[in-house]
Amino acid sequence: MPRNEREGAADLTHVIAVARSIGTHINGFKIVIEKSTVPVGTGDLLARTISETMAVHGLSHDFEVCSNPEFLKEGSAIADFADAPRIVVGAGSDRVRQAMRDCYQPYLRDRDRLVFMDVRAAELTKYAANAMLATKISFINEVANLAERLGVDVEQVRTGIASDPRIGPHFIQPGAGYGGSCFPKDVRALVRAGRDAGYEPQLLAAVNDVNIRQQNTLFDKLHDAFAGDLAGRTFAVWGLAFKPNTDDMREAPSRRLLEALWEHGALVRAYDPEAMREVRRLYGYRADLELCESPESALECADALIVCTEWPCFAAADPSKLAEALAFPIVVDGRNMFDPAMMQQHKLLYYAAGRGSSVADSSQLKALTAAPAAHILAAE
Ligand SMILES: NC(=O)C1=CN([C@@H]2O[C@H](COP(=O)(O)OP(=O)(O)OC[C@H]3O[C@@H](n4cnc5c(N)ncnc54)[C@H](O)[C@@H]3O)[C@@H](O)[C@H]2O)C=CC1
Ligand SMILES: O=C(O)[C@H]1O[C@H](OP(=O)(O)OP(=O)(O)OC[C@H]2O[C@@H](n3ccc(=O)[nH]c3=O)[C@H](O)[C@@H]2O)[C@H](O)[C@@H](O)[C@@H]1O
């Protein structure tokens, strides 16, 4: 489901088009299954649209709408599907429930994973699941921002809370905020749905706001470290996709960073194992964007490095090589990939999410440049 950009609401154009198509071609009893993430009430809308279209074409067939939301993640779709913790089915009759059980039988051999409910509950279950996960991410990002200002390493805090089974280790990795085609649009759509129903969903609105602010932290830290003096500088960017193992750039935190850097007259040298073709499609050829062949080549002539995506190939980076290659010893890490102590050992100013140097401060850079380091002097 694309979203309606103007209001944050889900855009049902394609779903209605499909319902009309079904109403035109239906030739006997059918079960119509919603797989897309659609607002509560879409099942009813589908049923109405199919009935009205059948009437226009002089058709009269029995059908039922069922909601069977998808919970897979990009990059692990097959494993998530085959080993789903639960299969949610919203259905209004035993006939549909049995048909869905038959359909999923190959995946139910070890245990029954079907969770039956009504159609509207299944529609909301999908949104609630994504909103809960997005809430966990915005929550830990809030804690990371507090940790930064209180001189605490959020990674220690994360480990401390993750061991409580009521909290758990999943979806509490702080970073540059969540992106992708689902969390941002689904949280916004749920906020919209609440407002349409006369209820202000304060928590969900805050989850979205915190995420937008978090996506901006990469640029903000860089901006502060260089005291706003970004024009004409060159920055290496490692990772562009919204997460590893995909080339998807939808709502990727890297996009906010790139666009803000360009707005401030900076040049970008970027590397991503998968997403560079997509970046080219989005931004075209431009003088302030160089797509590089390797992480190392992105560092050439760069003033500082920003990590946007935690591709495993970046984890092996040698801090001494980073310190050597960068004109200024600044690494802004949006995915907490490196050990702050190790970075410090190599005199790198390391700004991660809730760890390393505290909130970026240009005085730190001045202090460091006052104590001469060969590469900085060379750059000046
Ligand atoms: N991306 C994911 O990992 C997951 C997505 N979903 C949900 O699945 C739905 C699709 O998401 P994505 O796959 O990310 O979207 P997408 O935008 O990548 O893919 C949508 C596809 O539908 C095609 N399409 C659009 N209108 C059409 C029409 N009228 N007839 C036939 N094809 C049409 C598009 O060309 C495109 O290939 C959304 O509701 C999303 O929330 C649910 C779980 C996981
Ligand atoms: O509805 C959907 O389409 C899907 O949305 C997400 O899947 P996906 O968007 O593919 O990606 P995730 O792995 O969930 O990551 C989403 C974003 O959150 C970020 N994230 C994730 C986990 C975490 O701890 N911290 C964090 O910042 C990732 O970097 C990424 O930008 C859900 O995880 C799926 O269950 C759901 O089916």
TrEMBL record:
GO terms for molecular function: oxidoreductase activity. Keywords: NAD, Oxidoreductase. Pathway: Nucleotide-sugar biosynthesis; UDP-alpha-D-glucuronate biosynthesis; UDP-alpha-D-glucuronate from UDP-alpha-D-glucose: step 1/1. It catalyses: UDP-alpha-D-glucose + 2 NAD(+) + H2O = UDP-alpha-D-glucuronate + 2 NADH + 3 H(+). Residues 236-340 form the UDP-glucose/GDP-mannose dehydrogenase C-terminal domain. It comes from the Bacteria. The keyword NAD applies. Pfam families: UDPG_MGDP_dh, UDPG_MGDP_dh_C, UDPG_MGDP_dh_N. Its EC number is 1.1.1.22. Belongs to the UDP-glucose/GDP-mannose dehydrogenase family. NCBIfam families: NDP-sugDHase. This is UDP-glucose 6-dehydrogenase. It comes from Devosia albogilva. The lineage of its organism: Bacteria, Pseudomonadati, Pseudomonadota, Alphaproteobacteria, Hyphomicrobiales.
